[in-house]
Design a protein that fits this description.
By secondary structure, this protein is α/β, with parallel strands linked by helices. The protein has one domain: Rossmann fold, CATH 3.40.50.150. Helices cover about 30% and strands about 25% of the residues. The protein has 7 helices and 7 strands. Strands 3-2-1-4-5-7-6 form a 7-stranded mixed β-sheet, sandwiched between helices. β4 (about 90-95), α5 (about 105-115) and β5 (about 115-125) form a beta-alpha-beta unit. The longest helix has 14 residues, at about 5-15. It is globular, with a radius of gyration of 16 Å.
Length: about 190
Amino acid sequence: MLVTERDWIIKNLETIMPYVNTVIDVGSGEKQSNPLYSTLYKIFKPVRVYDYLRNKKIELKTLDFNPKAGASYICDISKNLPTELSNLEFDLVLCNNLLEHVSDIEKTRDNLLSLLGKYLLVTVPYKFPYHPIPIDNNYRPSSDDLVNLFSQLRLITAETFEAKRDNILHRFTMPHHLPQVTGGLFMRI
């Protein structure tokens, strides 16, 4: 996650935090499974969205398809949800930098909505290089595209913004272009 993206997320979280007690972060386990990212986190110690939520005493669960990610729930969000998740609902569903990595965007959307109690906060690369970790479906939505994907929810805010290359890894992997990210905050109607 880019630091400017993290700041956008936290800015929008601040507007809804009085109404949020439970959060599930879909597509991001507790552990960094990439050794390079883990090393960079240890060196630079960035404030992460998880740190922000924990400081607010929010109950945080995670969901990831990778068993090594240390997530609370292990499943592929683009397929059928396991029974243990079928009756769970979270005040906030976070879905950051995931939609470009799923095999079925509509099924993923439907599963996100099934976990949704009140709010959905999504970020997706807009202008960003191909990065197949594990896959890249080339989904790069504009803010209008994101609003259309989640048309059954009430829009609070959606925008596409420039994200600076914030760390050494991004400077090496994106040396010639300034990435852009699309973000949206939605509310169940």
